[in-house]
């Protein structure tokens, strides 16, 4: 049996502080998407200061701000969202448990929390994990739904895996509508966008949004994947080549298989991605518990929990880029005090999937300092914006 790390815990201080701040916010926290990042940003900034973050997120949506707070104080997105919910509106307060009113997942956003796993995810691990659920319908935008909802047919599991200094971000997409047992040569199997950063020589990070395309290279059984399936990536500076670089050239691994899952016993498509991760002391000091003197303590200065990071995760260094590249732990790019130079990168800072031409997933994801992976998808606009694929 797999030895799983402990899930995100809520310290008394973190909980009390969060409730205090949110109770002072009034209806600004109503809803789960929200374009009120400017209203809520000061509260994220307060948490940033308490944990010693030298640079704070400036996300464009409330959902990403909630993830930022969850990451820094090691609490779940629903807890951050739950104490106040929709106070000030006619719909009442949303609750994490649902015992006293509507569930946050039914009124604000669907969210998930998965603990750090010691090694790469396999199918046998899925019963131990919790996904974000979606309703995927051809010709329509994907709809985030609560687990167990009628019509839920696409599920995304994000999990940080591996030992300290060698972490990977595993993303599992469990897509029920695909039951075909064969590929057709040239078939566009799926297109996936995801956020990455390039670690620069001065330890700053350049955000990029990459698009990974899976294409069948031969006609044959799905069981022949990945031999019959090619993955290429666009959007990475320095890799504008024809053909574009392969996933292997960027340190990304993937698998595609037909199998049963906790969501459906009939064999269907399950895609697993393994992304390199960048979390470095000089660019991401909060993940190493840096105190006011700049010394790494490996303890979160707010929650008191041990960090999952004591060594740099340096991602992967492609020859074409010449610098480390990987997935960032943040739900949005770090920006200077003056603000982000463009909202384009931040607006698209999410994980999106289109499979066989049908939008299948759209969510924001991030990693807490203790290694817990969070994801949240607002059920009201603005949803995570995915490029047309």
Labels describing this entry:
389 residues, 8-stranded antiparallel sheet, 6-stranded antiparallel sheet, disordered N terminus
Helices and strands in order:
Blueprint: H1 12-23, H2 37-51, H3 62-73, H4 77-81, H5 104-107, E1 109-114, E2 132-135, E3 143-145, E4 154-161, E5 168-175, E6 182-183, E7 188-199, E8 205-216, E9 220-221, E10 229-234, E11 253-261, E12 264-276, E13 278-279, E14 313-314, E15 325-326, H6 343-347, E16 351-355, E17 358-367, E18 373-378
Antiparallel strand pairs: 1-18, 2-3, 2-4, 4-5, 5-12, 6-9, 7-8, 7-15, 7-16, 8-10, 11-12, 13-14, 16-17, 17-18
Helix pairs in contact: 2-3
Largest β-sheet summary: 8 strands, antiparallel
Distance between the termini: 39 Å
Number of strand segments: 18
Give the overall pLDDT as a whole number.
80
Strand composition percent: 25-35%
Order of helices and strands: HHHHHEEEEEEEEEEEEEEEHEEE
Segments where pLDDT lies below 50 for 5+ residues? Answer: 1-39, 84-93
Radius of gyration: 20 Å
Q: Give me the number of helical elements.
A: 6
Shape: globular
Helix share bin: 10-25%
The secondary-structure class comes to: alpha+beta
């Amino acid at each position: 049996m797999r030895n799983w790390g402990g899930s995100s815990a809520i310290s008394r201080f973190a909980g009390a502080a969060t409730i205090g701040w949110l109770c002072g916010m009034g209806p600004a926290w109503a809803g789960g998407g929200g374009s009120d990042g400017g209203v809520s940003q000061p509260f994220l900034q307060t948490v940033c200061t308490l944990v010693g973050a030298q640079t704070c997120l400036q996300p464009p949506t409330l959902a990403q701000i909630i993830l930022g707070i969850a990451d820094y104080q090691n609490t779940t997105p629903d807890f951050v969202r739950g104490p106040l919910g929709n106070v000030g509106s006619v719909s009442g307060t949303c609750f994490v448990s649902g015992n006293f009113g509507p569930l946050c997942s039914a009124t604000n956003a669907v969210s998930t929390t998965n603990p750090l796993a010691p090694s790469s995810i396999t199918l046998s691990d899925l019963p131990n994990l919790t996904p974000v659920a979606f309703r995927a319908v051809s010709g329509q935008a994907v709809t985030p739904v609560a687990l167990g909802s009628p019509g839920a047919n696409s599920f995304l599991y994000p999990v940080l895996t591996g030992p300290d200094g060698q972490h990977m971000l595993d993303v599992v997409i469990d897509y029920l509508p695909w039951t075909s047992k064969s590929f057709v040569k040239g078939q566009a199997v799926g297109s996936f966008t995801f956020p990455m950063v390039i670690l620069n020589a001065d330890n700053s990070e350049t955000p990029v949004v990459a698009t990974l395309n899976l294409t069948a290279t031969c006609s044959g059984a799905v069981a022949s994947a990945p031999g019959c399936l090619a993955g290429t990536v666009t959007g990475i500076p320095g890799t504008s080549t024809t053909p574009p670089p392969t996933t292997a050239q960027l340190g990304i691994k993937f698998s595609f298989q037909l199998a049963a899952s906790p969501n459906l016993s009939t064999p269907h498509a399950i895609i697993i991605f393994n992304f390199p991760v960048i979390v470095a002391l000089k660019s991401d000091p909060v993940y190493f518990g840096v105190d006011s003197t700049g010394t790494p303590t490996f303890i979160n200065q707010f929650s008191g929990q041990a960090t999952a990071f004591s060594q740099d995760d340096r991602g992967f260094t492609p020859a074409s880029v010449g610098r480390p590249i990987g997935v960032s732990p943040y739900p949005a790019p770090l920006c200077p005090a003056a603000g982000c130079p463009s909202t384009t990168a931040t607006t698209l800072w999410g994980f999106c999937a289109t499979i066989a031409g049908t939008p299948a997933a759209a969510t924001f994801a991030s990693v807490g300092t203790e290694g817990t992976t969070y994801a949240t998808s607002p059920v009201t606009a603005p949803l995570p914006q995915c490029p047309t694929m």
